[in-house]
Every structure is written in C-alpha cells, then in structure tokens.
Amino acid sequence: MVSLTEQETTTRSPRQQAGIKEWAGLAVLALPTALLGLDVTILYLALPALAADLQPSSTQALWIMDAYGFMIAGFLITMGTLGDRIGRRRLLMIGAVAFGITSVIAAYSTSAVMLIAARAVLGVAGATLMPSTLALISNMFGDVRQRALAIGVWATMFALGMAAGPVVGGLLLERFWWGSAFLVAIPVVVVLLIAAPLLLPEYRARRSGPLDFASVLLSLAAVLPAVYGVKEMAKAGLEPVSVLALLLGGLLTIAFVRRQQRLADPLLDMRLFGSRTFSAALIVLLVGLVGVSGVMLLVTQYLQLVAGLTPLAAGLWMGPPALMMVLAGIVAPLLARRIRPGYVVGAALTLSTLGYWLLASVEVNASGVGLAIAGFSLVYLGLGTIAALGTDLVVGAAPADKAGSASAMSEMVQELGVALGVALLGSLATFVYRAQISDVMADGVTADVSGVVEESLWAAVSAGESLPAGLLLEAQQAFTAGLNLTATVGGVVILALAVVSIVSLRHVGAIGETQEASAEKGEPCTLC
Question: Cα(508)–Cα(304) distance, rounded to whole angstroms?
Fold first, then answer.
C-alpha cells in the first residue's frame, strides 16, 4: 500500500495524456494568474481617488504603487522552493487565503501607511501564487505537447488580467469607491479554495531538507536593493542612491550564489543554470520583457496624454494587443510541435520588430492611435510567443522536484525585465522629451511654467490652460519623439534577440520529440 505522502509526491507519466480533470484544473489555475495581472494595473486608475481620500505624501504614493512589486520580486525564489518542499497546492491555497484577507484590509485602509503595509503583504502572497500555479501545471500535464499548450494559456491569462485592469478599474470607479478595486480578489479566492482540492493534485519533492533561512534573507537582501536601484534609476537617472543600491544588490547576489553552491540542499539549485536550454530561455524572457515594457508605458501614456482618450477608452483600445498575445500564446506551442521552438521564437520576434517600426512612425495626428495600436499588437505577438515557449522551456529543462524553483526563476527574470525596460528605455524617452522641449521653450515662459513642462508630459497636461498657446502641442510632439526613438532602440534590441534565440535554442527539438532525439544535440542532465 502507498502512503498518503507517497501518493501526494507522485507525478504523471511523461506520456500520459491529460483528461477533463486536468484541463478543468488549468481553468482553476487561470483565475489567480489573471488576478495577479489585474492587480498590477487596476490601481493606476484608482490612485487619484485614493490620494484624495488618504492624502498620502508623494513618497507614500510611490510606495503604495511599488510595495506590491517589490515584495513579489523579493519572495519569488523563496516561495518557489517552499512550494517544492511543503506542497505546491498547499502553498497556493495558503497564499490565496492571505491574498483574500489582505485585499479586504487594503480596501478598507484608513491611512496611507496601512495601505502600504497591506500592499506589501499582498506582494508576499502574490509570490506564493505565481510559481505555485506554473509548477502545478508541470505536474498535471505529463505530455510535453499538452504542457506547452497549457503554459501558453497560463501566460496569456496574466496578460489578459493586465489588459483588463484599466477597464475593470474604470467600471468600478464609476459606481463604487477606490477600495472596490481590491475586492475583485474575493470571488476569485473563494472559487479557488473550493475547486483546488477537487481538481488540483498535490506535489512536494522527496528528500528535501529544511529551508535555509540564511539563504532566504540573502535572497531578499540581494533582490530588493537591485529592484529598488533599477526603479530609482528610472525616476532620477544614475544618482548615487540608485548606483549604491545596484552595487549592494550585485554584491549580495554574489554572496547568495556562493552560499547556494556550498549547501547540500540549497534554496536555489545553481546546477539548473548548467542547462543550456534553461539559461538561454531565461535570457530570451529577460531581454524580451525589457523591450516590451519599455514601450508599453509610453504607449498607454500616448493614448491618454497625446490622443486625449479617457482611461477607460485607452483600456478598451488595449484590447487588440491583448487578443494578439492570447493568439500567440496558444498558436506558438502548436507550431512548436512541428518547428523547433527557437525558430518559432525567432520568427515571432522578427515579426514584432515591424510593430516597433510602426511605433517609431507614430505622430501627433488623427492616425496616431490606429498606428500605435497596430504596432503594439505586433509587439504583443512577440511577447505572447516568448511568454509561452520561453516559460515552457525553463520549466521543462528542470527536474520535477525543481519545477517550483524553475518557475520562480522564470517569473523573477520577467519582473526584472519589466523594471529594466521602464528604467532604461523610459529614461531614454524622458531624456529626448526634456532635450526637445527645452529647445522650443519660448523666451517669455516663466521659470515656474518651464519647470512644470520640462518635468513631464503628465505635468504639462495637468497645467492645461495655464500654459502659453501652442506649448502643450510642443510638449506632446516632444513626448512622441521620445516614443519614436525608444521604439527604434527597442526594435533593434528585439531583432538582435531574434537572432540570439535561433542560435542559442537551435539544439532544442520540436515539442514532442522523444528524449533520445532531443539528446542528439548533446545537452547533459546537470541535475541527474
């Protein structure tokens, strides 16, 4: 007779086809995935009403927005490994309960400090959900072709959540108070807690030792300063604070890696990086997200500040790009059954460079919105492909008992890619804006008005009628020039990444090849 523990740690046969229960389980896992994406963007619309009620300082307002992302990034590695040890379904349900309770606390916060604390706890809870959902998919879908398709669906659900955030937020704020944006989580959590025990398997790794808390502290001490430094660099450039934070994060990362190499049962098994597929897929995810996130924020600002759309209308216009990502996330794994994944990724990224070219051609005129949406749709086509196939390659390259750690690394590099994209390409756009607007500033403009306009297009639009005639249009043109150059640079980077993808992943056979055929290209099993 097999004990309960042994039953829970069993996994599906590599050739076993998933049935109705597994696909229904995927639908359950899609709920928290979409919720996490929704939570990233829904607060942008709620911030003005929230600020009017809680009266946060400018620093507190930034932490209300950033605390969530900081804590997710900081705890991903820890939670991915913790799920491998205590049970992935168990950690998912614990995290869901924490997410639901904290969402209620956030909704009814009575001060900025209370809301910041709630957002931080939401980030920790979110870090339990992200790797748990992805790792469970690797357990449920033993057939590699079905797993690739399931991960494609998983990846698109997060993007759909992000795209739906502005729309859902706009609809809620038309009828309710700002706290309603957080209460969206409650029905999702309730459904998850009811359905998870019925449809999701449990999995935990055999022979895993106790969690090394020194490694947990080191991982937090390494990731948090690094992410903080990147975000500060996006806001203020290479100031001493951002440089010191990045240096501190780098030094602590080295210390973390060295400790993992010495431990018999590390928090993050560094041998994972010995897999060429694992490392190459992480690079594709990292650089791909840098390009996408660098233009994503600028496109949304263009729609509202240059084209003059309301937040709700801008959110609706983001529907076609989201649909394109869904299409790519589902079609790419199907194509990769016949064509090597590296070639599919390379082709999709090459096609997405056309989107960057369209964004580089956007102007301040009536056709600008259509051109921006068409370009961004192609950009999202590339994102959907790398999110689906890149994530599948990362998870598939790891042994079953390391799937949680591999999932966490996949999410980690994507979080870092988003932060770097906003910092690097966003800073480039800001530089172009300020350089161009300073050249057209009229001699009669007062220092106060000049300071407002040179700060950002947001500030210029807020000043509105107080600006001299024609100055707002000049500011919009300067912003668009920044978008054009950023898209050009992003397109060059993505085109280079397309070549790197083809070269670095050419050894990976089409999805569904036998292990013997895949081993032809001679990648050793570094964790066997």
Answer: 43
> Which residues are within 8 A (CB) of 85 and not within 5 positions of it... i.e. 6 or more apart?
204, 205, 208, 211
Nearest to 192 by CA among 119, 89, 120: 89
8 Å CB contact between 26 and 140: yes
Percent helix, percent strand, percent coil in the chain, to nearest 5:
80, 0, 20
Residue type, 230: V
Q: Is the dihedral of CA 222, 223, 227, 232 positive or negative?
A: negative
Question: DSSP 3-state assignment of 364?
Answer: coil
Phi, psi of 527 (to 5 degrees): -115, 10
DSSP string, 439-467: HH--TT--HHHHHHHHH-HHHHHHHGGGS
Query: What is the maximum alpha-carbon separation in the chain?
Result: 88
Angle (CA) 399 81 201, round 5°: 70
Q: For the chain, 528 residues long, give each residue's pLDDT as a single digit of tens.
A: 333 333 334 444 445 676 778 888 888 888 888 887 777 667 766 666 777 777 777 667 767 777 787 788 778 878 877 777 778 888 888 988 999 999 999 889 888 888 888 988 988 888 888 778 877 887 788 777 787 888 888 877 877 777 677 677 777 777 777 788 888 889 888 998 998 888 888 777 665 666 777 878 888 888 778 877 776 776 666 678 878 888 888 898 888 888 877 877 777 777 777 778 888 888 888 888 888 877 877 887 788 788 888 767 777 787 788 888 888 888 888 888 888 888 998 999 999 999 999 999 888 877 788 899 999 999 988 888 888 888 888 877 777 667 667 777 777 787 777 777 777 787 788 888 888 877 666 555 666 666 667 766 767 776 666 667 677 788 888 888 888 999 999 899 999 999 988 888 888 777 766 443 444 444 444 444
| Token reading at 424 | 């690097």
**Scanning the structure block, which residue is given the tokens 């939401």?**
122
Q: How many Å apart are CA 32 and CA 47, to the nearest integer?
A: 23
What is d(CA 327, CA 322) in angstroms, rounded to the nearest whole number?
9
Residue 133: closest CA among 408, 329, 333: 408
Q: How far apart are CA 356 and CA 491, in angstroms?
A: 5
Residues 6+ apart with CB under 8 A from 87: 8, 202, 203, 204
Is this model's pTM higher than 0.90 or not?
no
Q: In Å, how far from its chain's centre is CA 140?
A: 23
Neighbours of 135 (CB within 10 A): 28
For residue 486, give every residue at least 6 positions away whose Cβ sits within 8 Å of its Cβ, in sequence order, or none: 294, 295, 298, 425, 426, 428, 429, 432
The identity of residue 200, as a single letter, is: L
Tell me which residue has tokens 């051109």: 371
The answer to whether the beta carbons of residues 498 and 343 sit under 8 Å apart is: no
Burial class of residue 88, CB neighbours in 10 A (0-12, 13-18, 19+) = buried
Q: Look up residue 365 and give its DSSP letter.
A: S
